[in-house]
Amino acid sequence: MPPSGAAYNIDWLWSFDSNVHVATDREWFTDFTPLTSQISSTHSSTLFAVEGVGSVEIEVRRVIGNAAKRNVGPKNSKVVLRNVLFVPGFICNVMGNPVREDYDISIGAERWIMDKKTGRGIGMLDKNPAGLVKVLLKGQAKGGTGLKGDVPERIDVKWGPGT
């Protein structure tokens, strides 16, 4: 079950350069195994503590605005992320490159998450005020962000040997 309040609105950023997914709140996880490790990121010289790993389901917006009002089908879909690291001290949630095993990501003029099995667009991407590409979650408006203060121009995550 997703977290509520401010924790729900912390951006899920799409990061092609990240070799793993990261969630900052334990409530995102549908299954969870404790794990002690660390990740690195180009936005900081600090190593960030990993406290666990598991699966996360995020409910994403499929349609917005007038299209949502006219659409008779579901307005939201679920994206399942596997092997997500729990890193409570990280700046945001990250949907890393491993998502491309199950989904295609389009960040051109139309920003979509597409299910590889069906070819259907199942979720929308948006740019937050810092210009970073984020997943548009159920209930979120385009153009918003949950990130506070100075936001780096680029955020990526690396996990594994040499981290």
From TrEMBL:
<dbReference type="InterPro" id="IPR054722">
    <property type="entry name" value="PolX-like_BBD"/>
</dbReference>
<protein>
    <recommendedName>
        <fullName>Retrovirus-related Pol polyprotein from transposon TNT 1-94-like beta-barrel domain-containing protein</fullName>
    </recommendedName>
</protein>
<dbReference type="Pfam" id="PF22936">
    <property type="entry name" value="Pol_BBD"/>
</dbReference>
<feature type="domain" description="Retrovirus-related Pol polyprotein from transposon TNT 1-94-like beta-barrel">
    <location>
        <begin position="19"/>
        <end position="94"/>
    </location>
</feature>
